[in-house]
UniProtKB/TrEMBL annotation:
Keywords: Cell membrane, Membrane, Symport, Transmembrane, Transmembrane helix, Transport. Its main location: membrane. The keyword Transmembrane applies. SUPFAM superfamilies: Proton glutamate symport protein. The lineage of its organism: Bacteria, Bacillati, Actinomycetota, Actinomycetes, Mycobacteriales. The keyword Transcription regulation does not apply. GO terms for cellular component: plasma membrane. It comes from Corynebacterium glucuronolyticum. The chain crosses the membrane at residues 37-57, 69-93, 105-128, 172-194, 214-237, 249-275, 361-385. It is found in: Cell membrane. This is C4-dicarboxylate transporter DctA. InterPro entries: Na-dicarboxylate_symporter, Na:dicarbo_symporter_sf. Residues 471-481 have a biased composition (Polar residues). GO terms for biological process: L-aspartate transmembrane transport.
Length: 488
């Protein structure tokens, strides 16, 4: 390793430490992001499906099974997705709650706002009925699953019968029976059991974490077939409905964007002003650069590092920011919550199979639990939506492929709403715990104390925002360099 003299104490070259020490590998080059090809493929497939449906409707309806096959691939991996995310999600809850008042208040706020967002999606969906002008026929598999669910409901009616259906015959039969609620039950029991073991259960959680990576990698592989499923679904629905189907999808998109806008500046703005007397429009202006980054990447996680830095600059204590922001990215997904329930109502209307109030409430409760822990994973929203429909109305699964064509265009609104919700939550939790300087918050949001962009802001990799570039860090004027910081 290169020796540094006292005279050169202020000229430490980090490359000397990296290159001369075999224990510290150089930062690997970030893999190229190819997901834009998937989005392009979906758009081309949607346009092709619409064109075929208009030109040759009889032929187009014959491609409908392509969408059905794609959904079967998604439902195939729903049980392990639910199991892994719930088990690890319980771990996140315990970790957040263990850090004291800030963590507990954050969790209460997250669950409350996510539930409210889900309810907003249900209400808006029932009011506008966006899919009422479409005609989507359920597949034979979906009809068979619905009949089996109905038969099961008849054989075990009442409260005790419903509870009996949730409990599987064996621990492993839940994963083969096709009952998502049984998998959810096993995951909850398993998660709480592991957490009760304390540190002894950490190796098990590590294993589940690695298993989750494999499952989501498999989900990513399946999503590369999304253009095929989108083509078949759009060709089939346009072939049987005509241009009216395109109009209904446009209505859903417009209604979703409008709902997210009203949620941010209406609901979140009201909550923020009620507790802190701060203006949501000023907060949005303060975070304008991050909003642009989110629109460019369609992911709220791309702006996570900048959000943490800006919340600290605004006067929120670093410890509070470190608790609220990362936890919020798994538990405070307001935009995703609105998307899930609005999409479910849209599919039910499009298939002319409206869900009863009881089914809608049951679906809402399921979404509250199942949506936790799957944040930041491409396709997780479609998977959770499919799981919810499979558990409550299996015949509606046939309508999920239709959403693939517009899912990408709804991603920006989801991400912006998620991001705004976490920004507001950070200030609120800081206010409730007394870990924020509200005078500084006011001065920052009004522009009296401007935020100056740093090298870290400009060097955030939009494809891998969690990886920092060591070359952008300014070394302290001392030879005592903490090399562990560069081992990331």
């Amino acid at each position: 390793m290169t020796q540094v003299s006292q005279a050169d104490s202020h000229k430490v070259d980090i490359e000397d430490y990296v290159s001369d020490s075999p224990q510290i590998p150089k930062e690997k080059e970030a893999p190229k992001d190819r997901t834009h090809w998937l989005y392009i493929g979906v758009i081309v497939a949607v346009v092709g499906g619409i064109a075929l449906g208009l030109i040759a409707p009889d032929i187009a309806t014959g491609f409908k099974p392509l969408g059905t096959l794609f959904i079967k691939l998604i439902t195939m991996i729903i049980p392990p997705i639910i199991f892994c995310t719930i088990v690890l999600g319980i771990g996140s809850v315990r970790a957040a709650a263990s850090v004291g008042k800030a963590g507990g208040l954050a969790l209460i706020y997250f669950i409350t706002m996510s539930t409210f967002a889900l309810a907003v999606g249900l209400v808006v969906g029932n009011i506008i009925e966006p899919g009422s002008g479409m005609k989507i026929e359920p597949s034979e598999e979906a009809i068979r699953a619905a009949e089996e669910k109905a038969a099961s409901g008849e054989s075990s009616s009442g409260l005790w019968g419903m509870i009996s259906d949730i409990i599987p015959d064996t621990m492993f039969s839940a994963f083969t029976s096709g009952s998502v609620l049984q998998v959810l039950f096993i995951a909850l029991m398993f998660g709480f059991a592991v957490q009760s073991m304390g540190q002894a259960g950490q190796p098990i959680l590590n294993f589940v974490g690695h298993l989750q990576k494999v499952v989501f990698k498999l989900l990513t592989m399946i999503l590369w077939l999304a253009p095929v499923g989108a083509f078949g679904a759009m060709a089939g629905v346009v072939g049987s409905t005509g241009l009216k189907a395109v109009g209904q999808l446009a209505i859903l998109m417009f209604a979703f964007y409008l709902t997210c806008f009203l949620f941010i500046f209406g609901v979140l703005g009201t909550v923020l002003y009620a507790f802190t007397r701060q203006n949501i429009f000023r907060l949005a202006k303060y975070l304008a650069r991050e909003y642009l980054l989110i629109v460019a990447t369609a992911s709220s996680e791309s702006a996570l590092p900048n959000l943490m830095r800006k919340m600290e600059h605004a006067g929120v204590d670093r410890a509070t920011v470190g608790i609220v922001v990362p936890t919020g990215y798994s538990f405070n997904l307001d935009g995703t919550a609105i998307y899930l329930t609005m999409s479910a109502i849209f599919i039910a209307d499009a298939m002319h199979t409206p869900m009863a109030l009881g089914d809608q409430i049951g679906l809402l409760v399921f979404m509250i639990i199942a949506s936790k822990g799957a944040a930041g994973v491409a396709g997780a929203g479609i998977a959770v939506l499919s799981a919810g429909l499979q558990s409550h109305s299996p015949q509606l699964l046939s309508g999920v492929p239709v959403l693939l064509g517009i899912d990408k265009f709804m991603g920006e609104a989801r991400a912006l709403t998620n991001f705004s919700g976490n920004a507001v939550a950070t200030i609120l939790v800081g206010k409730w715990t007394g870990t924020v300087d509200m005078d500084r918050v006011h001065d920052v949001l009004t522009g009296k104390i401007p935020y100056k962009a740093t090298d870290e802001d400009s060097q955030v990799d939009m494809r891998r925002p969690d990886v920092e570039n060591p070359a952008t860090h300014t070394l302290a004027p001392t030879p005592q360099v903490n090399l562990k910081h560069y081992e990331k």
